[in-house]
Amino acid sequence: MFRSPLGVTAIVVALIAVAAIAVPVALNSLGCGDVRYLRVSATQSIAPVLREAATEFNADRPGYGGACVYAQVDEIAPHRIMTALSGGQPGDSTIAPHVWVPESSAWVELARVSAGGTHGIGTDPPSLASSPVVLAAPERTDGMPAPDDTSWTTVLPGARDPERPLVMVDPNRGADGMTVMHAVRRHLGTGDDADTAMTDFVRDVQMDSAFGEIDLGTFHTGSAASGQRVDPVIVVPEQAVVSYNLDRAESAPPLDAHYPAEGTVSLDYPYVTTTDDTALWSAAADLYEVLGDEAYRSRLRELGFRDPDGSASPGLADRPGLIPQEPATHDDLTGDALLASVTDWNRLSMPSRTLVLADVSANMADDLDGANGPTRMEAALQAALLGLSLFPDETDMGLWLMSDGYGEEGREESADMHQLGTSDGDGDTTRRQELTTVAEGVEVRGGGSRLYDNILAAYNEVQDGYHEDKINSVILLTAGQDEGSSDISHAELVAALQDRFDPQRPVSMFIIAFGSQAEEAELRQVAAATSGSAFVTDDPDEIGDIFLSSISRRLCVPNCDN
């Protein structure tokens, strides 16, 4: 018999409504006056135990100040709860819970230092369980060190098989992702070279990053197709490895947990009471007492968690894929290091909005190195095509060509700002394909560059259309010589840029000049006025590193040391 989908929907809605009414009615029949709800939000892996404890808590019909309190447990991503506790964002309907169990106390610290300043939540909540952050890979994976002899350097692009991806949670979504970023930064150190290496790392992993708790079973299904792929290295809590090995398909590979010798972060699953309502606070305390029963401690161990002190129970120690001895851990993921683990990622993975200003003046026809090598124009073309390959589809990019051969303004505005991965018209050609075609056909126009005039015009163009959710910049590819072709002087340009640069809405100049004849000192002053960077090269092989170094400047803007 055919049943209308609308009819099915109506039945489902009616059943939900009846269920919603049934609980308060039942509690009222047991002598409750008012009925209140203790909202509990837990990370996905530990939520089943919270639900079981809530069922027992509710069965006791607890009353507080004449009202019965009914505990409800849901699974909401910790970054959404943090936002809700901090006052929320427009359009976000997440309701702040009364009890919060994220995977790590790092979330509690981030909530306390957030813009909303959630200072009311406790600073030292009790831990329900623990699980160290590990690297997961199939047993005897080629190129992987032994599980007890692994280093965090394994996650770096040059330290693993180029075909073997690294999968990690976006640091904005999980403390295991924050752990990776902190470990990489601690290994690389600080300074320009370290920032360039960090840029290389983020660009390597961001396309494979996950936006929530990772289910290892989705990567290792045991299907014929999955067997043809190169298995990734995946950063997860140890508990995820234990759970996967317990439930995996027979044809799926068993996984080993690899423990970094430098130390890792132990996720502590804090029980955070976020309400100051007396009745609900008391209910939260009583629910915590229920969770303290041995039955629930045993249930947590069955799910693959360690005890709060980091020890593995005998039952957990017998599970395959893990090393039961407590691994080396540290408590360094806090304070500035915690904030840097998120901000480094955000600045390097944030989409760009950039205007490319390309020099096609007569000077671009000269040899790059003065020894019958490629011309400056050929090197600039190579740089342009490489740059296009480095920027993701979400990048907004435009192109101006500069030469006083184009007439009074001294430039041709070849392409306005548009997202690289989408079409700029009715056809199927993307902006990336369009710019690639334009770049491959660019020729020297001749004449002077009008360098200083065009820099200021391009800067004003990007600043006037500033986008707060993107990295805004001008990329200049040039011979680096104005030779009096501009209406303004170098000093006037620098003064104008210093006046226009706004640290709250930064637009930076990233300059690549080709050939030793470039006016290097003058270009560096231009870049410094906007917290940008300037590089002069006569070696085309340096262009890739220059682009990475330029992108890494995102980490210091607007306070870059020039």
UniProtKB/TrEMBL annotation:
It comes from the Bacteria. Coiled coil: none annotated. Residues 410-431 are annotated as: Disordered. SUPFAM superfamilies: vWA-like. It holds the Pfam family SBP_bac_11. Residues 353-551 form the VWFA domain. SMART domains: VWA. This is Substrate-binding domain-containing protein. It comes from Nocardiopsis codii. The lineage of its organism: Bacteria, Bacillati, Actinomycetota, Actinomycetes, Streptosporangiales.
